[in-house]
Amino acid sequence: MNKKGQILPGAIAMLTILAVMVPAIILWVQRENVFASKQSRNTTAFHLAEAAAEKAYLYISMSTTTWVSIQNGNSQADYRFDKRYTDIAGGDYTISITSGPGAQQVTIITVGRDKYGKESRALKVIYSNSILGDTAIFAGQGVQIGGGVEVEWGAVMSPYTINADSALSPQFWSASQITTKDTSANPPNCDSPGCCQWHAYQANLPSPPSIDFDFYRTSAAATTGCPAGGTPAGSCYYAGNVDNWNNTTAGKTIFIEGYLDVKSPGMFHTGTMIVMGNVLLPNGVWGKGNVTMSVPNQAWKQYCNNWAYYKANFDPTSVYTAFPGLNTVYAPTGLTKTSSKIAVNGFLYVGGNFNNGGGGGGNSDVYGVLYSVGTTTMTAASPVTFYYNGNATTNLVTTNISLTRFSWQDELRAWPSGL
User: How far apart are CA 376 and CA 158, in angstroms?
Assistant: First the structure.
């Protein structure tokens, strides 16, 4: 059998395969290099956008003056896509800062671009000035709640001990113990499952706001139409103690340097009230205002261990028969509650102690936020309810800013033209 020439077809076939494959491999390698280069430039642009977001954060947090200016809608020079920053190697970036979308919020949009100008990435970050967050009561020296006292729609927070009695709601946050819940610093220091109601021995509680007392002193002194005793006469600034207070005051800032002694049949104040001393409450009625209150759309998060109560009292049409979990997209609107015994509809600051212990309690309510530097003791026998209203601190003037990141996301946005 003649075997000459049998190798030649195989060699030709191999050369044909190589002739097809080698160019394909070269093209694949070239494309891979292009993709790798593109990915590298894209990553660089993303890191530049991130760095720009950090720069914007530092700018909005450096002073209350800057924050207020942004909240007032003032355009910020160099932060309205009007400046190209080149201080970071690898490319450039630009920044926009505007107010909103909600009250006490700022929207930051940054665009980063690689040094060749071929790839850009954008980020959108929203920060909120978290003035006590969703906290109905903050007490610097501890909280005791019991008897007929209820706290609704917002949390109770203190760096010191909280005595929550047998309450199943709202959320409780303490840097120390929560009696009846957890008196040992050994973990776990929250309820199970999910840590949704009480949190003891928490080391990272947010700092309370530093209120601009000078601003409120000046504002109160310049406001007229308040009950007798103010300095100057007729103003809403009281240089000492105030006794026998049973007035109705609306839309005014009241500043009291000493204590406030409330007298039956009680008070009704709408707005901000600052008391540098103690608040002394009567054994009888101390609230007489009629208010239809809006249930916050996130109030339901305070009732993970008390869901049946929440449904029965605030949201009977809820589709959830059991607590839906803290991360559920659930924000009911239009829910209201009416009270005819409101003492304060707004923000109440107490530089001393706020005590409503023992006695009848007077069936009185507060709709807003209570910030007590001292102790807060509420163990009245008759029903007394604190309803949280986040709007009470929306325009609170402080000397510090406590920012929390509300959202962070990619933004489809090209590099601004003409920059």
Answer: 10
The amino acid occupying position 301 is K
Is the predicted pLDDT of residue 12 greater than 90, yes or no?
no
* 369 part of a folded domain: yes
Do 354 and 375 belong together in one domain? yes
Q: Would the pLDDT of 361 be above 80?
A: no
Domain co-membership, 66 together with 119: yes
CB count within 10 Å of CB 35 equals 10
pLDDT of residue 192: 87
Using a cut of 0.70, tell me whether the model's pTM lies above it. yes
Tokens linked to 140:
């610097």
Is 274 in contact with 257 (CB distance < 8 Å)? no
- Whether the CB-CB separation of 173 and 155 falls below 8 Å is answered with yes
Q: Is residue 1 included in any domain, yes or no? A: no
Q: What is the pLDDT of residues 114-130, one digit of tens each?
A: 998 989 999 999 998 87
User: How far is 135 from 270, CA to CA, in rounded Å?
Assistant: 19
- What is the count of structural domains for the chain? 2
